[in-house]
Amino acid sequence: MKFFIDTANLNDIAEAQALGVLDGVTTNPSLMAKEGITGAENILAHYQKICDLVDGDVSAEVISTDFEGMVSEGEKLAALHPQIVVKLPLIADGIKACKYFSDKGIRTNVTLVFSAGQALLAAKAGATYVSPFIGRLDDISTDGLNLIAEIRQIYDNYAFDTQILAASVRHTMHVIDCAKLGSDVMTGPLSSIKGLLKHPLTDIGLAKFLEDYKKGNQ
Ligand code: E4P
């Protein structure tokens, strides 16, 4: 399973990259705003900085909600850097734009996916990635992980190439459960990745090893 980090924060991206397990980055307009990145030029410059920091795919989301606007924005984003994946919302014009980009060989990430039917549409339109938001489904007492399982089954039934990118991952158990369910990718905050390191027996065991070493090597 690929690990993407879901942030526009350069320090967090650099820390995950330094760990050696990062495969890419996802951003969205809210995450960019959180970092204070505003204005078309600054936004493009920030994507460039992210691409310089990591080796993998970097999802950059369009703001337009009409086909022509999405195509024009997406083409600018894709031209910025070969690592850029154009992120499109799952609305009718987003699906049309996904098909347009897919036919042109430009990679896409269809976002704001909350049902198996939406994921099926995105795959039919040739999406590179589909982003089901599991945390936001959990927030409204719906089983987000079940959506990952449903999409996995549908994509496997028809051998769709679209990769399932479990999004809105909130914590370490989401990461583990997505891996069990065969999600191709997960995107979450740095804490969801670093949380995988933690086990008290590892800390206790290491402390004991070091203590025993010191006894014999004074
Ligand atoms: C997906 O790519 C989104 O950026 C993201 O995962 C949304 O997560 P949130 O529900 O924690 O905002």
From TrEMBL:
List its EC numbers. Answer: 2.2.1.2
The reply on keyword S-adenosyl-L-methionine is no
Tell me if Transferase is a UniProt keyword of this record.
Answer: yes
Positions the record marks as coiled coil are none
Q: Which PROSITE patterns match?
A: TRANSALDOLASE_1
Q: Where does the protein principally reside?
A: cytoplasm
UniProt catalytic activity: D-sedoheptulose 7-phosphate + D-glyceraldehyde 3-phosphate = D-erythrose 4-phosphate + beta-D-fructose 6-phosphate
Q: Which InterPro entries match?
A: Aldolase_TIM, TAL/FSA, Transaldolase_3B, Transaldolase_3B/F6P_aldolase, Transaldolase_AS, TSA/FSA_arc/bac
Keyword vocabulary terms for this entry: Cytoplasm, Pentose shunt, Schiff base, Transferase
Q: Which domain of life is it from?
A: Bacteria
User: Which pathway?
Assistant: Carbohydrate degradation; pentose phosphate pathway; D-glyceraldehyde 3-phosphate and beta-D-fructose 6-phosphate from D-ribose 5-phosphate and D-xylulose 5-phosphate (non-oxidative stage): step 2/3
Which CDD domains does the annotation name?
Answer: Transaldolase_FSA
SUPFAM superfamilies per UniProt: Aldolase
Q: What class of enzyme is it?
A: transferase
In Pfam terms, one family for this protein is TAL_FSA
The active site lies at 87
Q: Where in the cell is it found?
A: Cytoplasm
Q: Which NCBIfam families match?
A: fsa_talC_mipB
What's this protein's family per the entry?
Answer: Belongs to the transaldolase family. Type 3B subfamily.
Q: What does this protein do?
A: Transaldolase is important for the balance of metabolites in the pentose-phosphate pathway.
Protein name (database record): Probable transaldolase
Q: Which gene encodes it?
A: fsa
